[in-house]
C-alpha cells in the first residue's frame, strides 16, 4: 500500500478550512484540471458522515469513476473517506486540521493500493504516486487560495468565520 503525505499551511480559521475540504462544490472548483465532477450520491454541499459521492474525472486520458464514503467525521479536526468502488484495489484518505500560527495546518494522508498485483505496484512506483501527489497538492493550493480570500463564501454557508 502506497501512502502520500501532504501538509498545507493556510491563513484561515480551522472551521472554514475543514468545511471547504469536505465541500463537494469547492472540490469541483479546485480540481478543474481533471474535469472532476460529482455525478451520484451527494452532488453538492458538505459531505456528511455515512454519505457517499461518486466522482467522474479524467486521469491519464481515461474517464474514471470513484465512489467514496465518509466513514469518520470529527468537526473541525478530522474526517476520513474510503473508496467504495473505483480504480484502486483500496483507497483511504485521512484529512486532519490543526490550529497553526494563527491559521490552519491541513494534513492529508492518502493510502492506496493499485489494482493488478505486481503490475499495479510497479505503476504506483513509476507514475501513479507522483500523479496523485501533484493532483492533491494542486487541489490543496486551490483550497488555500479560496480559504484565504473571499472565494470561500461561494461554497460555504454565511457565518462569522
TrEMBL record:
<dbReference type="InterPro" id="IPR023393">
    <property type="entry name" value="START-like_dom_sf"/>
</dbReference>
<dbReference type="Pfam" id="PF10604">
    <property type="entry name" value="Polyketide_cyc2"/>
</dbReference>
<protein>
    <submittedName>
        <fullName>SRPBCC family protein</fullName>
    </submittedName>
</protein>
<dbReference type="InterPro" id="IPR019587">
    <property type="entry name" value="Polyketide_cyclase/dehydratase"/>
</dbReference>
Amino acid at each position: 500500500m502506497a501512502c502520500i503525505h501532504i501538509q498545507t499551511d493556510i491563513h484561515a480559521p480551522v472551521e472554514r478550512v475543514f468545511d471547504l475540504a469536505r465541500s463537494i462544490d469547492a472540490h469541483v472548483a479546485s480540481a478543474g484540471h481533471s474535469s472532476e465532477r460529482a455525478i451520484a450520491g451527494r452532488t453538492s454541499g458538505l459531505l456528511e458522515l455515512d454519505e457517499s459521492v461518486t466522482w467522474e474525472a479524467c486521469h491519464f486520458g481515461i474517464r474514471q469513476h470513484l465512489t467514496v464514503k465518509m466513514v469518520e467525521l470529527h468537526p473541525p479536526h478530522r474526517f476520513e473517506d474510503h473508496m467504495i468502488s473505483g480504480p484502486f484495489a483500496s483507497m483511504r484518505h485521512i484529512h486532519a486540521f490543526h490550529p497553526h500560527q494563527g491559521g490552519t495546518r491541513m494534513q492529508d494522508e492518502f493510502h492506496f493500493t493499485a489494482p493488478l498485483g505486481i503490475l499495479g505496484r510497479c505503476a504506483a512506483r513509476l507514475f501513479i504516486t507522483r500523479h496523485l501527489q501533484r493532483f492533491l497538492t494542486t487541489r490543496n493550493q486551490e483550497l488555500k487560495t479560496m480559504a484565504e480570500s473571499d472565494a470561500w463564501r461561494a461554497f460555504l454557508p454565511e457565518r462569522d468565520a
